[in-house]
Each structure stands twice: as C-alpha cells, then as structure tokens.
Amino acid sequence: MVPHTIVPITGDGACLFRSLSYLMYYNQLMASDVRELIVKHVVDNWEEFSIMSHDSKGDNYTSSAEYLAHMSQPFTYGGLCELVAAGELFGFVFEVYRNGELYKSFGVEGHPVKRLRFTQDLSKGHFDAYVPRKNEELTTTPLFFQYDHASNISQPSSLFGSKKASGKRRARYTNVKRKKQLQDAARKYAHNNPEVNRAAVTRYSKNKPEVHRAAVARYQKNNPEVHRAIEFRYELSNSGKRLERRALPWKVKAYSGMAYDPDVDYEADSIIALGTMSQKCKYCNALKWKEEAPGMCCNDGKVQLSPFQPLPEPLYSLVMGSHSEHVHFMNRVRKYNGCFNMTSFGAKQVQQDGFIPTFKVQGQVYHLVGSLLPASEQEAQFLQIYFVGEDEREVRLRCNNFPDVKQKLVKELQRMLHEVNSYIKDLKTTIEKVPTICKNFEVIIHADRKPIDAHGGRYNAPTANEVALVIVGQQFEQRDIVLHSHDNTLKRISEIHRSYDALQYPLLFCRGEDGYSIALSQRDPQTKLPLKNTVSAASFYSYRIMVREGEVNHLVYFRSLFSQFLVDMYAKIETERLNYIRNNQVQLRADSYIHLRDAMGKQDADVAQMGQMVVLPSSFTGGPRYMHERTQDAMTYVRFYGRPDLFITFTCNPKWKDITDVLLPGQKSHDRHDIIARVFHLKVKKMMALLKKGDLFGKVTCFMYSVEWQKRGLPHIHILLWLEQRIFNNMIDKVICAEIPDPVKDSLLYNIVKANMIHGPCGGLNRNSPCMKGGNCSKRYPRQLLKDTQTGNDGYPQYRRRSQADGGFTVKINEIELDNRWVVPYNPVLLRTFNAHINVELCNSVKSIKYICKYVNKGSDQATFALENKRDEVKLYESGRYISSSEAVWRILAFPIHERYPAVFHLAVHLENELKTVNGVVCSTFQSACKALGLLEDDKHWDNTLEEAALCDSSFKLRELFTVMLVFCQLNEPMSLWEKYKDSFSEDITRQVERELQSSAQQIMDEVYNRCLVMIEDAVLALGGQELQQYGLSQPKRLGEVLRNRDYLRETNYDVNILAQVVSNNEGLLTDEQFAVYRQVLSSIELSAGQVFFLDAPGGTGKTFLINLLLAKVRSDCGIALAVASSGIAATLLEGGKTAHAAFKLPLNLNYVETPLCNISKQSNMAQVLRDCKLIVWDESTMAHKGGFEALSTTLKDIRGNDGVMGGVTVLLAGDFRQTLPVVQRGTRADE
C-alpha cells in the first residue's frame, strides 16, 4: 500500500458527495449530480434503505417522499445510507478510514478502491478525500474522468505512515498475532474458494445445529440493523420466493375475519385501496381521492373564490424552504405571526406534557381588538405597534413578547407588511389625516363593501378605502369594527366580519385578503352569475383549504399556524350556527322536544308555556341532546336485536403511505391535519364496507359508530356490530387475538402488532405513562397470562395470553422486553388490512351493554365547570367544548361524526287518544290511563294521613296539608280525597257563611265548598302550583272575577274612579310641551305602535309629574303600566314604582355577559304581566347599563312573541344627562 495525500473538502453539509465527486471525477463540481444519482437509487430501493436512512435528529425517515424532499436539498448531510447506495451504484469499493484505521467498507469486493477520511461521529462528522501519491489508480478510472489540477491539495499527510524507518525494535511475535494471521488467511481462502467455504459451513451447521442457531441468534441480537438489512436484501434478490410465500389473493371476504392466513395479501386488496390524490374537480381543479364527494371542495361549482396571490419576499422564501432561516422560522411560525397580529386570540389553549401534534382549545374562541393608540405611560401592543413610527422601536416591541424570534427576520417581515398590507396602509393614512388638535377620534372598518366594477356578493381582493374616519352622528352596522383612538377596553370582533381572518393572521393573509362574509353569494357554475343563496362559512373554508392543480395554496405550508387557523375557522362556523339557534328560539322552543314533554308528567300542562330561555336542539350535531338521542338509538337496537357482538375501536395511523405520499417537502403528518382527516374518513368508509358488504365476520344486521378526538388529537371511531350469526365462546380465539405473533412465520403481523398494539409499558416500568391514574394503570395492564380464553364472572372475556413456557413470544419496546400481558386485543385480518391501532372486544355480557352503548356515543371531551346561567344551553356548550385541528377539518368538510344502520325514527306525534286508550276504553286523562295500566301507586297512605289529621287539626291546617299534597306529592286521585274530606276542610267556612246569610248551611253548601276551593287554589298558586283543574279538581267560581296571579293583582289593584279623577284634575295643568309628549305616548299605546320615547329635561321641570299622570291615565282605563327606576330613591317618587333590577330581574354581571337575559321564565306570573302590559316607564334611565335595556328587549320579544323593539310595548325612558357625572378614566377620590 502506497502513502496517500489528504484532499480537504468544503464543509458545507455536502462533504460526502463532494468527496465522492473528487474521488471519481477528480473535482468537486459533480457533487450535485452524484447526490441526485444516490438519492434516486435510495428512493427506488426504499424498502432496503429505509432502515438505514437518518434525518438530522437521528430518526428514520417515515417515507421515501420525505427522504427525497430532504436529501435533495443541496446542503443536507449524507451518511451511512448514502455510502451503502454509492457502493451498490458505482463500480468502486469505498473505504472509510477513521483515526488512521479502516472503519467501514462499502461496495463489491474486487472493484477498484477509493478511500475517504472520516472525522468525528457518523451523525455530525466530516468527510475528506484520500488520493494516492502515485498514479497507480488512474488506469482504473473511466476515460471521461479529468484531474482537477487546480484543487487545493494540502501538504502530504501519510495515511499508513512514512517509508522512513523509525529506528524502533520490531514488535514481538505473539499468539494473538498468530491467531489474527490465521483468521485473515481463513477469510482470504473463503473469499477465493466460496464453494468450498459454503460446503464446510453447511456440513458444520448440520452436525452441530444448536451451535449454529445460538450463533445466529447472538449475532441478530447484537446486530439488529445488519439483520434487518440482510432481510431486505434477501427479499429483493429473492422476490419470487417472497411472492410465493405471501402473495395469495384475498378471494373470499365472507367470514375471513375468523380464518386468518398469514400468506394472504390483505393489505393489497382492491377493496381497501384509496388510489392517489389525483382526481380533479371539474369546476375548481381541486385534487381529491376517487371516492371523495364531488361537491366537497366547491359545492359543485357554486363557490367561486379568487386564487391567492404569490407570497411576497422574504415570506415566500421562509415558507417554501429557500431561505437560510427556513427551519428556524417554520418551527416558530406561530410566534412570528403573534409578533404581527392586530387582534388578540381569545381562547384557552390546551397544553399537555411533551410534544403535542395538534392545536387544541377549550371553550369559546373570539378575537379582541383594542384602541389605535396606547394610553399614556403604556407600551404599544398588537395593532398599536404599527403606528409607533420608528422601525427599530417597532421591532423591539414585537420581540419583547417572543424572545426566541430573530430581530432581523422580524424587521424584514415588518417592512414587507408595511408595504403590502392594505389595512396597515389605510389605517396609517387615515390617522395622518386627523388634525393634531383632535385627541379623540374613531376609525371604522366596514363589514361589507361593494368594490368598484364588481358585484357586492362576489369575493374580491382588497381595494382602496378599506377604513374611514367616523363622522359624528354617523350610523354604522353592528358588525362594523369601530376603533377608538384611546380606549382601555377590548372589543370583540364579529366572526362574520370580512377582516376577521386578516387582522389575526397577517402572515397567512399578508395583503389583507378578505375572509368569510355573510354577503358572499353563490354563483352559477356555468354562467358565473350570482344566485339567491349565499355561501356558508363551512363551504367558504372547505374551498380555501383544498390543494388545486396549477395553483399554490400557501395556507397548507404554514404547519402549526395552519393548525391554529383550522381551529379558529371551525369555531367561527360553529358560532354562526349557534347564533342562529340563539336568535330563533321561537321556532326551537325546548318544550317541543320529546324528552321535555315526557318529563312534564301527569298534569298535562300547557306545553306552550314550558321550556328554557335558550336551548340547544337535538338537531345540533355533537350537542348533548344529539348524543343522548344516539344513545337511545343504541338501546333501541339492543331491545330489537339483542346485545351487540363486537366493539371495535379504530384509530388513525399518521404513518399511512396514503398520508405521507401527499405531504409537502419537509412536512410531518401532524402539519397536515386536513390530509389526516380526509384519509381517515376514506379508511372508515372502507372498513365499514368490508364489515357490512364484505361480511368479514358474517352478515351484519345493524351497526353504529361515532367519531372522536381525544388526548393527542388523532381521530378514532368506536363501532358496535350486531351479527346475524352470534360469536360463541369456542369461536373467540378465531376472531380476537391478544398475543404477539411468531416473528419468523408472520413477520408482517409481528411488526404491526409491535408498532400499534402493545400497551405502555406502564406501571413499575414507566410511572410517567399517560394511562397511570393513582399509581395504577387505568386500562388494567399488564393483564393475566392464560393458557386458554376464559369468560369472566361479569361476562367480559379474558383472552388467551400464553407465557413463553407455553409457546408465547416476546417483543422489545424501548429496550424493555414485553410478553403477551401487554397486548391490546385485536383481529389479525383487520390489523393486516389497515395497519393501525384496531382494538376488538367481544360484548359478552348484559352488564357491559349499557356502558358500551353510552361510551360509543359519549362524544368528544367536555370540560367540567360551573356556569352562572345554566339556562343558556348554547353558552354551556360553547364553554365546555374542546376543539382540535383534526376535528376542525372533519367538521369543516362536513364529514359525519355518527353513522347507524338501519335508521331509527323518533315518533313525535300520536293518533288522537291513542295513549289514553286502555283495553279499548278511552280514559279521561293520561294519568287515569297510567293507573288503569297499573303504572301508578294508589293514594292510601295519603288518605291515612288526612284521616289522622282530621281528628285533631283545624280546618285551616287541613287545607294547608292538602295544598302541600297537591303541589309536591303527585296525588293520583285528588278528587276522591276532596270528596271524602271536603266537610273537614270547610268547617270554619260553614260557620262563617251561616252567620253571614242567616240560613241553614245545608241550603248553601255549594257556596261553602266553592269558597273552600278558592282558598285552596290561592294557597296552591302561592306555592308555585297551577289551577285546580290541572290537578283533576273542580275549578272554583270567583263570582265573575277573572283569576289573577299576585303580580297581576298588584299591577291591577287600583281604584279606577280615583285615578280617573286624578287625570281629570291634572290634564289641564300640563304645559304645551308636556301635553305634546303626553299625547304622543298615549297615541302609541292606543295604536299598539310599540314606540320607544326618551324624555330628556333638566331637573325640576315636571318630568315626574308627567310620568305619574301617564301612569294614572293607563291604569284608569284598566290597563297595566309598569313604573321602574334605576335607583330606589327615584322609584319612590313614582306611583307603584320599583327598581328596574327588582321588577325585571336583570342580571348583575351586565359587564361580562355578551347576550344578557332577564331571569323571567315564560310561564311565570311576571310573564303574564309583561304580555298584557301597555306602558313601561323607566325613570333615571341615564344611570342604567346598556345591557339592561338589551336584556329587557330580548326578554320581551321572547315572552310577547313579537320581534319588534321591546317586544312591541310602548316604553318611555326618562332622565337628565346633565345630572350624569363625567367618567374619569383610572380616576381616584383625589380627582373629585
């Protein structure tokens, strides 16, 4: 061996490819071509090289696409995998030397040798080239090689030492050296005589098989990577044998789930193949899989949006990967967006230990905006930073909140936004127009606009004049954004404002592109003309998240920011639906639901008066009533078909090739939850088709499943199957397995079980496992080892889990050897077919049925919390929900979260008297029908109670006792008790009537009993009960007087003659102005115009006199006029006056409630007063919170069934703004 010279290679990450280029072509200029050839060879032979490939973190690449995208970069480091590929691809043997000694050799022996020097370690090292000092290798190089004389060759540095004698003694000849010489000689002989060597090895292995097996097992254990690489090479070089072993077609699907054959090629069957994402929508060119719905992307061409413009620099380079800071930027893209967003993101983000592959929030999601300029002695934040005016100070303020961002990048992005963002430019221009003497001003961003030369409903790119100064007295829409110059409060932005997206995500919409707006019209697919219907938020964002041919959708490149955007936009979609429900409670009354009607019981009350103020109907997907109905459906299946047979949990596998093949360069599966959701949806359809149409376990009579998102965000489904042919105990082992497969006979299933179906480890092996609760595994692992499957005492099967002594196998996870105790039960056929976590359990007990039926329909996680207004079911749902990125995509694309077969119909109506008919006889009430059926107990114990009380208690006490029984004790036959004890109830009344009428009681007993019933009814109403006829008793006569509740009596208990005299005496005292107001208010009342007046006058000018006269006028005509005031003192000056909070039961937290409501139920006494009310007077209204008026108006609309302002009742607001003290912001008592 001749001495070699070290040729230094540039250390830019491509040193390996530069070294190979120099060794083969004698220059480094061919490095990119060498890289391209090696990468292509690795991709073409991915099964062989996947285990040897490593990314910058030392992990294997998940797919060939990911490897290709990463290794094609010009400065990506090459290592072991690439050297093996170079040895196979080029006609050389590449020897790698480390510390002067041979480290590894790559290539086919006998080919010319090329040598490289390697320093440091395999993951972070550097390669240089070795060239011989003599030119003996030039004859072996191709003719087109050219020597690069200009290459910078260092001073000679001998690899094997100098030829000059060192002068030292020759080393001693030892047995170690002799042994090494013999080994080298044997190796050389074996190489030169391979046939003789193979024959000797075969003979030795045959004579001593135990030694051979032990040696092989020991080598496999010590060198697992080499063993796997050999397996791959063997399969590639012996593909015929491999196909012969496992390429049997899956011909018969029926009952094949009970007859697993490891040689069947389940995973390649056409029934579960998805194909490629190459199907184009004929309207919008969106790329989809073949079996996806045609209208999923653009609603069959009715949604037409303009494509995104290319991102400006430097954002384009940062996102697409050509910028040197690409990796840093993408790892912190949400933080960089946070540096520039103009609104704050209001939501509770769910944080968990470790890496979280999804963005997840709990509760309401909303955006808040502050003032344009900061208060004195406060730093600017969010939108305010854009108007600081100094670039360096802007950068410093942005970086203060996110210290790990780079100021240079922030400065470049800041400059870009100032140049291209329409909102920033217009806001700056508008503020500059404000006179310097004007300290307080307002700027408006309109919710709707009609661009020049464009239809108002068409989506357009932003135009000029996006914002404008607010003119004093100018009217604007409720959805408009009004920005104050100085304001310490944060205002919530309407979710349907067009700038909602652009203000929160300035990097996604850097030019200020419009988001969803309710004014966006659908368009005819052919003529492009607008249609009557508008585009829904779900359709809008379904269009926006799709990838289209010939168009770059930069949203999908933003990784974690894209995940947050998905959650935010789905929250917007759901908020739009919930607001519709909140605003249409008249059509969605809670009392119209079957469950509430059933709960009303026996009294058969008026259902029109029942219900809560805000209800979430069962038609709302994912709501509590919706999931409750699904549970009832499951129990209906149980009643009709019996217990379900199989309970299957199917979880998405983010490493599916269908997912990894469509990822963009550098992306991981958790960066594209849109792809995860779409692929899993198709996989679910494939599985249900295999189970139902393919009869995998036999004919399916019915099924149901629900989709959930929990823990780390991946979707999974819970499936219940009812089979026509039941699974008996002797068939369990054919359907369900809880053991590790034989790694030799069934290596494919072994690897799938190892990757997906091993629980933990947890317990003493891993105390930090997420399944650990209270020191124990919540899933009850490890399980007991059993030689045979057993049925437990409670009916839950205990599956066969054999020990190693009984023939079981083990698997090593994180250097921990685990046996069958840790295996999650599975079906081998399903597992091989779908390569995912698929838990299969047998439903073998009645005890488990109700739990499983409720579990499969329990829905996604909900937070447990206390809410002050529990009658608002919409807010209750919003505050408790969790939303993850994957669920957001699922719901945006309108994928079902629940499926069932056959359909279950809810019978909401019945034939007349159908339920009252018992044995052909029509009962008078539902209660009597129930009694005839024996469903109700009798009143004997209540009869005994009254009999005992009649012996010693007075009539008054007996009536009280009977009243309590009527209201609270649910008597079955109150009329029988009345007839038996009515004389005892009315003894005192009998004596009173005899004294009044001077006649015998026998002649006037009807009057006695009537008075007794009136007293009992009054007492029942005082306890919150109903009229006596609702309890089955006779309705008492009130001598022509209409029955009134106490609130009603209080508002009508006036002497109309005295009031008429007051009106007559005081009308002439009114001034001209007072009389004009007096006539206008009375005219509104007479015409039922429902006008709202504001009476503004200085103190002492007769406001109270006028108000009292109006109250007297309305009450003198037997009408109801309510008089309230904001304070107790002011209320005392009004006839019959009360405070507004006491009269209308206003909420106390008006500052924090978005949609306040009065605490008045529709069936209450006060509700009857408000229905018949003619006039409401509110004095000192200038002191009241605006939320109080909103609460009263919403409540009156609901109770009176009138959508007009204040429910159509005439309202007079009075007050004096001159008496309202000025508000001093952040003031103290010293400022008085």
TrEMBL record:
One of its GO terms (biological process) is DNA recombination. PROSITE patterns: OTU. It catalyses: ATP + H2O = ADP + phosphate + H(+). Keywords: ATP-binding, DNA damage, DNA recombination, DNA repair, Helicase, Hydrolase, Nucleotide-binding. One of its GO terms (molecular function) is hydrolase activity. Gene3D superfamilies: 3.90.70.80, P-loop containing nucleotide triphosphate hydrolases (3.40.50.300). PANTHER family: ATP-DEPENDENT DNA HELICASE, PTHR10492. Belongs to the helicase family. Its EC number is 5.6.2.3. It comes from Temnothorax curvispinosus. Residues 4-133 form the OTU domain. This is ATP-dependent DNA helicase. It holds the Pfam family OTU. Its cofactor is Mg(2+).
